[in-house]
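W.,

You were right to be curious about this one. When I first looked at the sequence I had no strong expectations either way, so I just let the prediction run and decided to look at it fresh. Below is the sequence, 419 residues in total, followed by the output.
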Amino acid sequence: GLSTAIKQDKGAGGAEASTSETTGLNSILTPNDEFQFWSLAAMSASKLKHRERAQAFHGLFQAVIHDFANLDSLSFTDVQELIEVTQDTLDDVWKQTDHEPAYPSSRMQHLLGVAGSTFTRYVQRQLVDMDLWNGPYMEVHVAMQQGITVLDKWTNVGESLTSQFWKRYTAHPWKADKYVDIHTSQLSARLEEIESIRTAHEQVKQLLTAVECEELGIAKSFSPFQSVNALQYNPYTRPLWEAAKAQYHRNMEPAERRVATTLRKQFQGHHTHAYQLLREFQRYQELMKRPVIFTELSRERETLLGQMMVYIQALQNEYQTCSTGQQLPSGEVAAPPKGKNLPEVVNNIVWSRTLEAKVVDCEASADKLLSDLPAYKTFIASTHELIEELRAYARELFTNWSREVLEAIDSPTEPLGLQ
């Protein structure tokens, strides 16, 4: 145990337990083990400076000790809050330099790892009793989203601390590579797969009649997953998961072909409205990931790409006309739509950002839905060009406004003048 490791480290004539890089790491399996390590080190160290250092670290960990000890009683929302507090706590621990030496890098890497494993096991325990395949779709969907949020939040903590905040902290810089938590990131990816499968499956059921679902055996299609623990992610179980997934998709191919026919008819009503057609494709984006449907709807996707190219050109024309103040056929001068109580510069920047958001949305959707089509590269080139023009326009507006304000401040005749 930890006590034995500390005694052995001291008895071996090495560094005191409170200063050792690796003392007790083999016995540290959870964050609470690390917290306890510093508590024991504070009591056992023979030198005052080592006791004070250990007490400092243990004191900083007090902010999270209780919640980690009672993790299973916390809700997903509570755990998200715990992760935020843990990030702040680890940041304080790393930046504690009043007692030298600072927190060892190897210990911090180990602590990040055991914390990730702890959050991974927490999510698995929260979901273990849920019927992932036959349970109510919305219950499964919400649970998957909550689990993914917790896991991704912790993954981001490790990456941001070690690649940004600590890299720039000159008093105790992080010199190792960026920490990437494989446990949380891999389980998050698995939960996303489960959610994607359930979402596409639900949409198939919605697009087919009850008779068609019965005829195509939709109710039995999840049978390949019954012998697989979907929440258990490791290199040994992955082949079983991949085999079950492949069999499920083979089971669903007849239904997917039927659904492609239904979607084709549904999309026909929006062929002349680019944004509406895009929204319909986005609505069924999980289904569009299926190779059968993706291929069957190639012509419809080509139509969508053509409509989106027209739409982007319309946005380009709007930008050119309004930003340069061109005269309209009515005799009026074109200008960006005016918002309520906004100064002209702010209004125009908001307008350009709105146009940019629309272009970025189209670009992201095209990447998922249309990247295999011949005209895709031409489309992306046009969106890139328009995005750069809109950003340059907004920068120019801000630069000109900043210069005018500074000139007004320097002028004794202006209300803003400081002279």
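Here's what jumped out at me. The two ends are 72 Å apart (CA to CA). And, maybe more interesting for your project: Confidence is low (pLDDT under 50) at residues 11-19.

Coffee later to discuss?

I.
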